[in-house]
Specification:
The complex is a heterodimer of chains A (about 375) and B (about 400). Helix content of chain A is about 30%, strand content about 25%. Chain A folds into two domains: about 120 residues, Urease, subunit C, domain 1; about 250 residues, TIM Barrel. In chain A, strands 1, 2, 3, 4, 5, 16, 17 and 18 form an eight-stranded mixed beta sheet that branches. A six-stranded mixed beta sheet of chain A has the order 8-11-12-13-14-15. A four-stranded mixed beta sheet of chain A has the order 6-7-9-10. Chain A is α/β, with parallel strands linked by helices. In chain A, helix 5 packs across helix 6, helix 5 packs parallel to helix 7 and helix 10 packs antiparallel against helix 11. The longest helix of chain A has 19 residues. Chain B is of the alpha/beta class. Chain B has two domains: about 110 residues, Urease, subunit C, domain 1 (Roll), CATH 2.30.40; about 280 residues, Metal-dependent hydrolases (TIM Barrel), CATH 3.20.20. In chain B, about 25% of the residues lie in helices and about 25% in strands. Chains A and B meet through helix 5 and helix 7 of A and helix 2 of B.
Amino acid sequence: MLRCTLLPTALVGLAATLSAQDLLVRAKTVVIAPDAVLADGRFLVRAGKVAYVGQDVPADAAAKATAIDCGDALVVPGFVLPPTTLGRDRDLAEAALPFTPDLRAVEAFDPWHEELAKLPHGGFTSAILSPSPRNIAGGLGALVKPGAGGGSVAAPDLHLALSLNAAARNPERPPTSLMGAVDLLRSAFAQAKSSAAAGPDVAVLHSALQGNRKIAIAADTLSEIQQALDLARDFGFDAVIVGARDADKALDRLVAQRAAVVIGGLAPEMRLAQLQFPARLAEAGVPFCFTGRPDQARLSAALAVRHGLDRKSAWAALSRAPAQMFGVAGQVGALRQGCAADFAVWSGDPLDLGSALRAVYVDGARVHGELPSAAANPASSPAAGVR
Amino acid sequence: MIRSLPLGAIALALAALLPAQDGVTVYRNARILPGGAPAIDNGVLVVGGGKILAIGGADTKAPNGAAVVDCAGKTITPGLIDASFRAGNTPDMNENGDEVTPHLRVLDSLEPADPSFVRARSAGVTAVHVMPGARSVIGGLGVVLKTHAKDPQAMVVKHDASLRIVMGAEPSMGNRAIRGGSVDSIYYRRPTTRMGVVWAARKAFYDAKEALEKSADAPPATPSPGVEVLTRVLRGQVTAVTTARSEQDLRTALRLAAEFGYRTVLDDAQDAHMLVDELKAAQTTVMLGAPSATAIAGSAGADGADPRSVTARLLADAGVPFVITTGSNAASLDLVREAMFAARNGISSARALDAVTIEPARLLGIDQRTGSLQKGKDADFVVWSTDPLDPAAAAESVFVDGIAVQVLR
């Protein structure tokens, strides 16, 4: 017990020491963003953020910084996990009431939550903590991060989480049916459109309709997806459809309404059409990312590449796409100047399943793995590079 | 003749597989039962662009280059219309949060890929009227749909086609009376009785009538969406459809309509044979549900109706307008078999077929588009292997808007 309490304190101390000084991260390949890949790249981390990238790193700052030399490894932005309750459904589903848009997921955030601490094991450095889809209007999501000294909230009150899926239709409280659920949202949006001063719950919808936050709607069947898109069309917002099982049948509408989708993870035994769907989405220009367990996200992306998805889109699906969908692209999902220094060091392209995760950093502090040494790992294959 | 038969079969299959909307197709040598008009022997049906271009006898002109399908020995009818059709999964069709939800739209709960649409169209049904489930006193607004369309939105023929009201035991079934103890469920509430069901309906219409009267003197305040729908019913802008099975419930339905001055169609109406004169006096149309069924099934069984096979004939003889539907009875047969059953029990074949084609189209207000084979209407039709009221008849090819949705060999 004594050790348990001492250990986090020691780690907090370590993190503080690291962030106090600039870090210079060097690697044979640095992926700043899917379409910005640096060969023999480097970036400077100051106060937990990316301060300079590539040629912009000032020589004197580079000389003074602590160097992290990743050799011929690959440094990529940390992955961003799209809406999740991180297994804390009981804390994030106020299911007795169907309409609670003003509840905040951040109030149920536990910095010492085990699943949060495990995120870096899959290369993830942040997650969109979201109210459960068991409510028609569950509340507001938050961007959270794991950390050696406990997790942190990077952005509270992010997106508005709505749900039309089967989980939201509860026979023990109204609405019990899809038509009832649609009616509830439609009348709430109508009220929100006409006035901001109709109580704290409607005010949240009003603010979302003003464009202040993204609106994500959980919907699986074609009719649920259509209802979600109808709401988006009639009340003028760009929807993020979460779950989206039948999205292939509504592809034209998704494109026309500039919607984004969070689709289920892929597994090798799935039907070909499902495995090829990410490639179709990319071709149609619909932003997408994968739900599911964080340890399966990389497999999903790799399977999508195996079935025709280009690598840039696959990388984006793990990092930049979810960040953009939920309005946090300025903070996470890329290693551009000003973004958080959330990155992972891989022995090769993470989309090649033979590549190993070496280390993960959140806000410039190592949360997983070993400090990379300058010596190149003989196990890393030359074929596992970036195209 | 021997050679032309298989050729005809191939042509039929081929025409069905090709997108019929692109070209013009001529169906020749069929017996055509156009719906609401006399039969045409050796008839010709010309279809193109999803519409009927021409219909008539053997001398009907067809454009050059049109594909020709020999239908010798076959019978062509309009696509059937089921005016009271069960679709969707039950929980989503019934909003159990409240007994009175006039403004809810059943369309919002419907899945275009619902298997009931596939079953219906393979049995020759090309349009259906779907209402919310029967577990509410006033469940909401019904919709008329084609049973197939490329785009689900295109399935809709008519929005807000009806307001469903339900009499009898069914709407009160899940509810429990509060008898001490803690109230831990939304189902502890009224109505729990038949009279409670009527009370709920009466209160709703009373409120709507009051809103209507108030709006006559003063500029209308914004009424609740439910009241707004009910005022439209009171003004005669939305058709009320009251589901009632037993004699007592049918009488209650007529009484309630008379009390508030709206017209109602009676749905299911198994006991209609007991009050033919009253139905005639009230000028009510009956949607006769599953005339073949000998009992009412499922949760409606408690309604205690006494179905008779002669009901259709009694209504026809008395001049009460009626259509035949599959209704809410899970024991119902395919719609064409229900028409066959009614014909076997004393109405003419033509009348039986009209009761599942042009009559429901008129009742639902969609007869400008479908329900009979007339120039300019949608190409919704069925090629039957023989007379459709023959027990052995099969719907060999079914077309919705000129698109083949069923092809048998």
